[in-house]
Amino acid sequence: MSGADKTLTNAFYEIEIDPDTNLPVRIKVTALTGRRGTTEAKGKKIVGGEHAAFHFEYRLSDFGKVEKPEVPHEAAKVLAKLR
Amino acid sequence: MKRIGPGGAPGLSAAMLSLALAATAGAAPPQPGKDGDIPSPAAKLLEATKNLAKAGGYRTQLEVQGGLSKTPDHALVQFAVRQSYDGQVYRELLHVPAMKTFKTAKKGVRYFEGYWRSVLADRDGKMLNSFFSFPQQVLAQALRHAKTGEWIDAGGVVAPATDGDADGDSSSAAGENDDEKGASGKTVVVGEGGDATSTDGARSLPRVMRIEAPTREALQHYIAVENSGCLGGG
């Protein structure tokens, strides 16, 4: 991942919404970074060549079925102390 | 150091989400699309974000894959990171049972080596903290750019079938194949021009949108990945 060209970065979201419930069921974030001398770009858009790509894909389900988790006392204490 | 997750937003609160919703509502008022009966991606995203906030608790699975790509669809040929997490979100608290982690938008704790410690105290926790944003936070961030949104499973724009799928899994978007099961399990047929119709003849609404983020936000994503330590230098 060396040689990152931080002046050439792209990101986009892909979001799937269930038309029946109007709830998001999939969220995908793609983040791209060019590499100096090897990335192909059209303007500021990365279209090929060597580049770094990161994909974060969330799948959501069980809406309204998850109950409040029980946080152990010690965990809550540590969490409260953190800034 | 200002932490920014994949969602790009530095923190999450009900107030922040409300502000994002209000800002978006002001910038891009919900309107039907050109077609009249197809809602605009911005309007649909706004509605979905509100509904998610109302849902309270839900389950979320996150797959993170990153590394080197050489192709226009950004599929990976060399991996720097491959992680998956299974979490439960309840309002502003995320619980990842397998990692014994509780996390809010700004901080988190993890049980390891016999003690509850900051989630930032070890490499795995640091990666989880960097990668796993609250989905509502990610949506709030996407909402800021919702006016660039377009449906990719209806009309002119169609996503590449393997866009971003590193392992060739093409199960991501309904409407990619001529005949496939939608996420609801209903068979969906995509006709000419991208109109999706169910087998009983009723027209289906588009369900997958794409939103471009500005360069500045893309850079923030890169910095977040760099800070996670997964690239070896963080």
Distance between the termini of chain A: 32 Å
Q: What's the helix-strand series of chain A?
A: EEEH
Give the helix proportion of chain B (percent range). 25-40%
Q: Kindly name the structural category of chain A.
A: mainly beta
**Low-pLDDT residue intervals, each spanning 5 or more residues of chain B:** 7-13, 25-31, 156-201
* SS class of chain B: alpha+beta
The chain pair forming the largest interface, with residue counts per chain, is: A-B, 62 and 85 residues
Uncertain stretches of 5 or more adjacent residues of chain A: none
Give an overview in words.
The complex is a heterodimer of chains A (83) and B (234). Chain A has one helix at 73-81; strands spanning 4-18, 23-42, 45-61. With 83 residues, chain A is mostly beta strands. In chain A, strands 1-2-3 form a three-stranded antiparallel beta sheet, with no helix packed on it. The longest helix of chain A is centred in the C-terminal third of the chain and has 9 residues, at 73-81. The model of chain A has no long low-confidence stretch (mean pLDDT 94). Helix content of chain B is 26%, strand content 28%. Chain B has helices at residues 14-27, 41-55, 123-131, 135-143, 215-228, and strands at residues 57-69, 76-90, 93-96, 101-103, 108-112, 115-118, 150-151, 153-154, 157-158, 179-181, 187-190, 196-198, 208-213. In chain B, the strands form four sheets. Chain B has a six-stranded antiparallel beta sheet with strand order 1-2-3-4-5-6, with helices on one face. In chain B, helix 1 runs parallel beside helix 4, helix 2 runs antiparallel to helix 4 and helix 3 (123-131) runs antiparallel to helix 5. At the A-B interface, strand 1, strand 2, strand 3 and helix 1 of A face helix 2, strand 1, strand 2, strand 5 and strand 6 of B.
